[in-house]
Write a structure and sequence with these properties.
75% helix
Length: 809
């Protein structure tokens, strides 16, 4: 090693030599591993390892073999089918029979030899071909020997014979897996085809399908292998679905014929649900639906048409009640859940059918074609709907409430309120009774909002310490949702409270719209609503109290407006009277700190101001009064900023409207009342926060006067305004330069320059007209030469000016 090298160069050489040694060592280790493999291999030699990695196999050898065998068997079956159907007429009877018999026998016998040699997959493919050939043999026998035989009857007999033959064939060759499922599939056809061949109608065929499905479920196949059980189950499902559809059709056309069929299907599905765990809820739900159709069909036929839906709802409620455990009766959980879903679904469909009268009761009073206080009443919306809709809503409320769950009780209460809203429509109640029912619905909803009730059973109590793991909440009918489906348990009090508020608002709006037909009813309704809202505000708590108090403010505004209209006041005078409500709302909000009360007061105030718009003088007075209310609200610390801006805007609006009423057209009269307070506010802010920008503090106030006045100067050809505006702009510019403020300096300087340009423009135009035509281009050229000559110095001066302006605030 050369010790004369620098340390850095020597370190580099050492690292390079170590890297070469590591590479050589790795190469030698790989060669040693290969040599050991060659010495210990049975053949004594092996190919040298390749540097390139072998591509991974995309399929297994068994998969490739099965694919080839399946494809080969399919092609042979297609060839046999073509031979039977197309080339059949080119041979005699003896030859045709001999060919088919020989091929079928060979195909059925070959699997035995193949199985003994261990070729199971090949034996399976050839055996499948043999089964297909037996079907073709049966077809050939019918065409040659029995051409006049009934097709359905012959097919039934052939299916039974083939099922037996295939089962026996599978018993002889136990290594084959296909014959037994094929025998089960063929066994599905004899009874339905036999019933059809015997002249039976759809009912007979459906009963045959039910019996076959029953054999599939309770027969000896349930002790066979998985493939046989799957085939039997799928076949039972198909046949059962056909029987169910037929029974449903009979339930509509001939209920007494469909009832036993549906009952049989229900019993079969219930047996399968009890025997099965995975599909128990679905099968039990189908059984419940079939049972409801079986019982409800004859009852519907025996009663008038309007009782059809209530009959099915009663049956559905009875099925839904089965989800609850009964003493001494053990029903699997999956079956009970299926009954709950089936019965609940039927009840829900009935409730949907009964909803139109509810909408009619809510939206019907919105028809104001008769006019306000006219004494005439519009025709009820959906007045001819069956009165049994009320019965359906009552039944739905009872079924939902009987569930005992949180969502069930919530649904029961909602349906109870919906029943009250539907009664005036379905019973065609008189005007006073309909109005009273709507007010009762409002009171009941507000009572629900005030007293939402105890927590629902099963919800965890909130306690100190670490929160427990979330449980899986139960469904409406007792079914269990998957874990994680609900993020957090629902708070019962909040759910019922907000439901009561929403329902109360809806029914109150409907009652008020209906009350507008009669003057006395309007005052009575508004008084009742005001009383209900005040009671809810006193008895409630939290958001319920605020919402009820806000609704009370709206009701009070309605009373004041109705009183003004009854007194014959003009809309503008009524608007002034309505301002009493926002004033009271502001005082109430200051006492209870309620944002809902404030929002209601703002809404009534906006209506009041809108009523005074046709009379600008009254509008100015109303704006000033509203500004006083906002200024009073600004005394509250938490509302100081928003209320101050609102008060200033209202006062400014009042001043502008009053100036417009007086016919003042001078823009400064409108802008100075805004500029002076804005500058004062900016000055106070700069004292409190010296780092605040002058554009934020003084920019809006200065621009509010300077820019409109500048526009007026350029619009007016003469007057004293240019002189006054120029003096003011000069003062603003000097103050900006004195206190190093960017906004006053730039705004004042720009306005001053534009005013000067406006004043010199006529003289400049006259001077340019008197000069020779060649003088302006010459002056422009000289200017460009001068600028070019002093370009660098001008850039430096412009940079310094920009820096000075940037240092200003």
């Amino acid at each position: 090693m050369d010790m004369r090298l620098p340390p850095v160069e020597e370190l580099r050489l050492v690292d390079a030599e170590l890297a070469r040694l590591d590479a050589r060592r790795a190469e030698l280790l790989a060669r040693r591993a290969w040599l050991l493999g060659v010495l210990h291999s049975p053949a004594g030699r092996a190919a040298a390892p390749s540097l390139a990695a072998a591509a991974p196999a995309e399929t297994s050898p068994r998969g490739a073999q099965n694919a080839l065998l399946t494809l080969g068997g399919t092609l042979l079956a297609i060839a046999a089918l073509a031979f039977t159907l197309v080339s059949w007429g080119s041979m005699g009877i003896a030859g045709r029979s001999a060919v088919l018999l020989a091929v079928t026998s060979a195909a059925l016998a070959a699997p035995a030899v193949l199985l003994r040699r261990g070729l199971g997959s090949t034996a399976e493919a050839v055996g499948a071909l043999g089964l297909v050939l037996t079907v073709l043999d049966a077809y050939a026998l019918h065409r040659v020997a029995l051409p006049g035989t009934d097709g359905a009857g012959y097919a039934a007999v052939v299916a039974a014979v083939l099922a037996g033959l295939w089962a026996g064939y599978g018993g002889l060759l136990r290594g084959l897996r296909l014959p037994w499922p094929a025998a089960v599939a063929a066994a599905q056809l004899p009874l339905p085809l036999g019933a059809l061949a015997a002249g039976g109608g759809p009912a007979a065929v459906a009963w045959a399908a039910v019996l076959t499905a029953a054999v599939d479920l309770v027969g000896p196949v349930r002790r066979a292998g998985l493939a046989v059980r799957v085939t039997a189950g799928a076949s039972a499902g198909v046949l059962g679905a056909w029987a169910l559809l037929t029974g449903g059709w009979f339930s509509v056309t001939d209920p007494w014929a469909g009832t036993p069929l549906l009952a049989g299907c229900a019993a079969l599905c219930l047996y399968a649900a009890v025997r099965t765990r995975a599909a128990a809820p679905a099968l039990a739900a189908v059984a419940g639906l079939a049972g409801v159709a079986a019982v409800g069909g004859p009852l519907r036929a025996a009663l008038p048409a309007e009782w059809a839906v209530p009959v099915y709802v009663v049956c559905g409620g009875a099925v839904a009640a089965l989800w609850r455990p009964f003493p001494g009766v053990r029903i699997p959980d999956g079956v009970r859940a299926g009954f709950g879903f089936a019965g609940g679904g039927i009840v829900a469909l009935g409730v949907v059918w009964a909803l139109p009268p509810v909408l009619g009761g809510l939206l019907g009073p919105a028809d104001r074609s008769a006019g306000v206080w006219s004494g005439a009443h519009a025709e009820p919306l959906l007045g001819g709907y069956p009165a049994t809709a009320a019965v359906v809503l009552l039944l739905g409320a009872l079924v939902a409430g009987a569930s005992g769950r949180l969502w069930g009780r919530w649904g029961g209460l909602v349906l109870g309120w919906a029943l009250l809203m539907a009664l005036p429509v379905v019973l065609e109640l008189p005007y006073a009774a309909g109005l009273a029912v709507r007010l009762v619905a409002t009171g009941a909803a507000l009572a629900l909002a005030v007293r939402p009730g105890p927590p629902a059973r099963g919800l965890p109590e909130r306690a100190a310490g670490p929160a427990p793991a979330p449980e899986r909440p139960a469904g409406v009918w007792g079914a269990t949702w998957p874990a994680g489906a609900v993020a957090a348990p629902v708070e019962p009090g909040a759910l019922f409270a907000w439901t009561g508020l929403v329902a109360g608002a809806a029914s109150a709006g409907s009652a008020l719209l209906l009350a507008l037909d009669v003057r006395a009813a309007t005052f009575a309704t508004l008084g009742v609503l005001l009383g209900l809202c005040l009671a809810a505000a006193v008895l409630g708590a939290g958001a319920v109290r605020g919402a009820a108090a806000g609704s009370g403010v709206l009701a009070a505004g309605g009373l004041v407006g109705a009183g003004a209209a009854a007194a014959g006041l003009a809309p503008s005078s009524a608007g002034l009277a309505l301002l009493l409500v926002p004033a009271g709302a502001a005082a109430l909000a200051a006492r209870f700190r309620s944002a809902a009360v404030e929002g209601a007061g703002v809404a009534v105030g906006a209506v009041a101001l809108a009523l005074t718009v046709p009379r600008p003088a009254v509008l100015a007075l109303a704006l000033a009064a509203a500004g006083l209310i906002a200024a009073g609200t600004a005394l509250r610390p938490e509302r100081r900023r928003a209320a101050s801006w609102a008060a200033g805007s209202l006062f400014l609006g009042a001043a502008w409207v009053r100036l417009a009423v007086w016919g003042v057209t001078v823009p400064e009269a409108y802008t100075l009342p805004l500029t002076v307070p804005a500058l004062v506010v900016g000055l106070l802010r700069r004292r409190r926060d010296p780092a605040a920008s002058s554009w934020v503090a003084y920019g809006p106030g200065l621009a509010a006067t300077l820019l409109p006045s500048l526009a007026a100067v350029w619009a007016a050809p003469s007057g004293v305004r240019p002189l006054l505006l120029g003096a003011g702009a000069l003062a603003v510019t000097l103050l900006g330069a004195r206190f190093r403020l960017q906004a006053p300096l730039l705004l004042g300087g720009t306005v001053l320059a534009l005013v000067g340009l406006h004043e010199l423009a006529p003289y400049a135009v006259r001077l340019v007209g008197a000069l020779p035509r060649w003088l302006p281009p010459a002056a422009a050229g000289l200017l460009l030469l001068a600028v070019g000559a002093t370009y660098e110095r001008r850039l430096r001066e412009a940079r310094l000016l920009r820096e000075r302006l940037g240092r200003m605030r």
